[in-house]
Structures are given as C-alpha cells and as structure tokens.
C-alpha cells in the first residue's frame, strides 16, 4: 500500500510539472460561418415560408487548463478541477436571410416576403470558466 502511494505521488508530481510547461489557456473568440435556416408558420401552424443563408458569426474555441489530482478527502479519491472555453459576453445582432421559398420550394420575389430578419446572439469575448458554473 505504501508503495502504491509513493507511485501515485510520483505520477501526480510528474504530471503537474509536465502540465506547468503548457500555456495557461488557449480559449479564443474566432470568426466562423454557419448555414442558417428559419421557417415561418401561420397561426394555424402551417408553413408559410422558409428562408436561409450563410452567416458570419463568432464562436468560442480552445482549451483551458484542467487537472485531476489524488485526494484523501473526496469519496472518489481524486479532486477534479475542470475548466471550459465559453462566452463571457454576448451581443445581439439582426441577420437578414435573403433566400426565401414558399412551402412548394418556389423562390419568393415579392417585396416583404423575399427576406427575413432573424435575431441572433453571438459571443464577442470568450474565456475559461469552471465547468458546470452557469451562475455568471
């Protein structure tokens, strides 16, 4: 048992020193493009039109420093500290979709029905947060 603890301690310290050489956080706000489709229904639930388009938006991407270490206090025997790359601030944008079609797939050309405005929230800044922490 004593040998097991020494081995576990050695592995932990080896891991900590190797992780210390890595950069702290690599969480970034990056530009990306998505294909967005939005459908519009009447009050009876019938499809009126479908609009779509390619939209440039920001996304959060990257990694954050997390660790697992042996612990005599926790029931599992390990203390886990997990951090995730998430948005720290969102901005609201109005996107105009210019490719609209009726339920039969015919492209709409009439003024007022040939485009649709969609409200979108996207990240303007991203950073590392403790995983599962939704209190911010």
TrEMBL record:
Domain of life: Eukaryota
Protein name (record): Partner of bursicon
Keyword tags: Signal
Signal peptide: 1-18
């Amino acid at each position: 048992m004593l040998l097991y603890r020494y081995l576990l301690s050695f592995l932990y310290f080896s891991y900590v020193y190797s992780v210390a050489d890595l950069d702290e956080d690599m969480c970034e706000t990056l530009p990306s493009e998505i294909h967005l489709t939005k459908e519009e229904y009447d009050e009876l639930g019938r499809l009126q039109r479908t609009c779509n388009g390619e939209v440039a938006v920001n996304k959060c991407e990257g990694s954050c420093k997390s660790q697992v270490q042996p612990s005599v206090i926790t029931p599992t025997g390990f203390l886990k500290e997990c951090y995730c790359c998430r948005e720290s601030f969102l901005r609201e944008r109005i996107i105009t979709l210019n490719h609209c079609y009726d339920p039969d797939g015919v492209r709409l050309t009439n003024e007022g029905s040939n485009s649709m405005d969609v409200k979108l929230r996207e990240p303007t800044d991203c950073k590392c947060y403790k995983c599962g922490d939704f209190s911010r």
